[in-house]
Each structure stands twice: as C-alpha cells, then as structure tokens.
Backbone:
DNA sequence: TGTGCCCTGGTA
DNA sequence: TACCAGGGCACA
C-alpha cells in the first residue's frame, strides 16, 4: 500500500518523465476511472503541457500550463508505470497518458481504488491536512496540542490526515511500536515526552521506509515483509522483548502491537 | 464514533 | 468459495 515515502518516490518519477511534456492522448480502461475523469475532462487534458508535479500527504498534484490541476491519489494499490510505445501495456492498467515524446505514463492499480480528477484553473483546493511529518512544521508543541483535544485511541487518530499528513495503517502501527505506545491509549492522555517520542518515531519509520514500488526491496536487502517490526506479525515474537505480537481492530483497521513493551 | 462502500488479488 | 485487506468518504 503506497504510503508517503512511496508516493514521494512516485511523484519524482512522474515529474522526471512528464515535466515539460505535452499530453497527446488520455485513455481510460476502467469504469471507476471514468467516474472520476468523465470524457469532457479527459479531452480537456489533451494538448496541454505538464509543468510540474507537487505532493502533499498522499496526494500528487500535476500542474498544467493552462492552470488546470490533475489530482492523483493512489489509495491502496495505485502506482505509475512508464513505457515506450512498442512495449506491452502493464497489467492492471487503468489510465494511460501518452506524451508528445512517445512516453506512455500508465496508472496501474489492481484494486481500481485510485482517483484521478481534473480541476479547472483556479478551482483546486487542498483538503484540510496536518503538517508534513518530515518537515520542521511537524513540531512537538503542535502535535501535542492537536492530540490533547482528541479522546479517541491514538492509532486511529494517527490515520487522520488532519493530524499529520501521510501516515497510513502500516506506519501508524510501526511508529507506535517504535515509540512503545499502546495503540489503544487515548490520544489526549499522552504526556509531552511520549508525544515527542511518537513524533520522532514517525520520522524514523518514514525515513527508513523501503523506497520503491510496493516494497519490492527492503533497505537491508531482505524480503520486504521482513522490514516491518509489528505490522502483519501477529503471533510472532517482538524483536525488542520477545513477547507475542498481538493484533486488534480499531475503527475497522487492523492494528498490531506488542502487549508487553507498548504501554497505555 | 462506527459502519459500509468502492474494488479485486491473494489466501484460507 | 468466502473472506480479508485497506484510504477516504458518506452516512447514521
């Protein structure tokens, strides 16, 4: 599942391939794609030059020369693939942008949850988003202040993009393990010291995330799933204290934690 | 605050 | 064959 590091990686690849290029043709291959990008919007994109690609949280925003913005959210399984015209299209292709140099940019998305939407010039507004976790805007004071107003358990609060932008289900569990905080701890009950630990832990797990598509490689060269400390490891031993990792469901999402070294 | 929905590949 | 996973949103 693409989270912030993967989306940033995707943004850089898209910008490298498409900035300065004109969109020659847009093709849609799935009804879900047509729902968000109706034929009129599809046609309006053709012939327009891409000037750059921006990112906030897990949203990529493609800037077009005429002021149009193309909003892209990969959701669960989306990603970019790039080919030249004689090559076969990738599996699960949902949208294809053919550029004026012949490069084909494919939105591949096995579950077809990804959203690509056109915004006419001057109409795009960012949704309410918290600070980017890897910037100086993500301060302990600000984070502590926001959490102090939330009585809900910390794990689902971390998934709220208004609290901190770009943390998803995997890294929320990973960061709480790193910070030794139980996922069911009410957010408002966290002391400043624990909030600081959590902020630092979010930065650690995001910066040590395996870079690439769908975690095809882990930083240590091992299988990608071996990179996670708790995510998906129910029943296995905690790497810190050797207790059994447990899981629970919070707001419909799986959480993984060590019942011994993650305290409420 | 919780639930269901959108989807489909992978697994039990 | 049934069920699960998950981001974000609508809805109760």
Residues:
């Amino acid at each position: 599942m693409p989270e912030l590091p993967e989306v940033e990686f995707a943004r850089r690849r898209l910008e490298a391939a498409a900035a300065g290029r004109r969109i020659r043709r847009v093709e849609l291959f799935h009804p879900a794609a047509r729902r968000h990008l109706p034929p009129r919007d599809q046609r309006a994109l053709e012939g327009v030059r891409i000037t750059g690609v921006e990112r906030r949280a897990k949203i990529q925003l493609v800037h077009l020369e005429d002021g149009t913005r193309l909003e892209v959210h990969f959701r669960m399984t989306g990603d970019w693939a790039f080919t030249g015209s004689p090559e076969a299209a990738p599996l699960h292709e949902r949208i294809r942008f053919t550029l004026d140099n012949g490069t084909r940019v494919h939105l591949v998305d096995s579950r077809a949850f990804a959203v690509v939407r056109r915004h006419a010039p001057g109409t795009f507004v960012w949704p309410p988003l918290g600070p980017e976790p890897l910037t100086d805007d993500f301060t302990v004071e600000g984070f502590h202040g926001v959490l102090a107003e939330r009585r809900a358990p910390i794990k689902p609060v971390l998934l709220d993009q208004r609290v901190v932008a770009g943390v998803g289900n995997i890294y929320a569990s990973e960061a709480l393990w790193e910070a030794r905080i139980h996922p069911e701890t009410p957010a408002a009950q966290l002391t400043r010291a624990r909030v600081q630990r959590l902020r630092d832990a979010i930065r650690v797990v995001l910066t040590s995330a395996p870079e690439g598509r769908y975690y095809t490689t882990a930083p240590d060269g091992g299988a990608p799933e071996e990179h996670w400390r708790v995510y998906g490891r129910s029943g296995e031993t905690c790497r810190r204290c050797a207790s059994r990792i447990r899981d629970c469901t919070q707001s419909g999402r799986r959480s993984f934690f060590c019942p011994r070294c993650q305290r409420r």
